[in-house]
Specification:
alpha+beta; six-stranded antiparallel sheet; two-stranded antiparallel sheet; 7 helices; about 20% strand; globular
Length: about 280
């Protein structure tokens, strides 16, 4: 056989994967095929990811409300547990003197609150003097969760809250009793605080201080003023005081400031006042 002769299929076809050009073509083809597979997987998994995200939010509402039982409940229980919870949309005050109002234009099931908070049309800038939670902007419309007892009466209110800690924004839910004065639970589902320090906002023992009905934590006084005081660890002696997290002064202050903002006159305060006075008719 002469040196320039070959019987390989590559030579007959004019394609040799062992050449630089051939190697590049093979690599490019593999990359293209892999990208198609990844894209198809992403599209196929998107509905599942969206449902998981929705379940996470609903699960944390249930945790704050004291309805969810770790080790017993699963995501399959969420629809049943939510049967006694009404979700309403509330127009938050946009300027001093406003009291907010029930939003009847949007549907709670379709409303993406996180997306609204990050878009100019769905959110508003918070004046620096009012921004005790350090979030700069907030949504104009918020979900509110009304937890009803067996007789259909609202016995808890769950509010979405968020504010700055030391390293991150803490996102969570706060539950109040029907008087709107006492805490009934709290949970944070997203943050990047230091594990073992500010990250102890996730500690069940600390969270139990917010849901203790034998010695309830008082968040608002009879006039509707927010009076929560997060003290140094071991210094809480009054009904409106709660021990802060050891070694996490800034995160503890962030939690206090977050509650003060969202229960205040520029957020949910007017709603809570109207609910407590019986002005609102929120029948199922």
């Amino acid at each position: 056989m002469q040196p320039n002769e070959t019987t390989s299929e590559e030579a007959k076809s004019g394609f040799d994967p062992n050449t630089p050009v051939g190697t590049f073509i093979v690599a490019a083809t593999l990359c293209f095929v892999c990208s198609l597979i990844v894209s198809a997987a992403a599209v196929g998994l998107k509905p599942l990811q969206e449902q998981n995200a929705k379940n996470k939010m609903m699960r944390n509402v249930l945790i704050a409300a004291g309805v969810w039982q770790d080790g017993k409940n699963t995501d399959a229980d969420i629809p049943e547990l939510f049967k006694n919870i009404d979700v309403i949309l509330w127009n938050l005050p946009e300027k001093d003197g406003e009291t907010g109002s029930l939003n009847k234009e949007l549907k709670a099931a379709d409303y993406d609150q996180a997306a609204a908070a990050s878009t100019p049309g769905g959110s508003m800038a918070i004046p620096a003097a009012d921004d005790v939670s350090g979030i700069k902007r907030r949504e104009k419309v918020s979900k509110i969760y009304l937890v009803r007892d067996a007789d259909g009466k609202v016995n808890k209110i769950v509010l979405p809250v968020y504010g700055k800690g030391l390293w991150s924004t803490l996102y969570g839910f706060l539950a109040l009793d029907a008087s709107t004065r006492e805490a009934r639970g709290i949970t944070f589902y997203k943050h990047a605080e230091t594990p073992g320090l500010g990250g102890e906002v996730d500690n069940p023992k600390w969270k139990s201080l917010w849901s203790n009905t034998n010695s309830p934590l008082v968040l608002r006084d009879d006039q509707g003023q927010t009076i929560l005081d997060v003290t140094k660890p071991g210094n809480a002696t009054q009904p409106n005081q709660i021990d802060g997290l050891s070694g996490a002064t800034i995160t503890s202050s962030g939690v206090e400031n977050t509650i003060h903002y969202w229960l205040g006159p520029n957020a949910f305060g007017p709603f809570l006042d109207q609910f407590a006075s019986g002005e609102l008719s929120l029948t199922p």
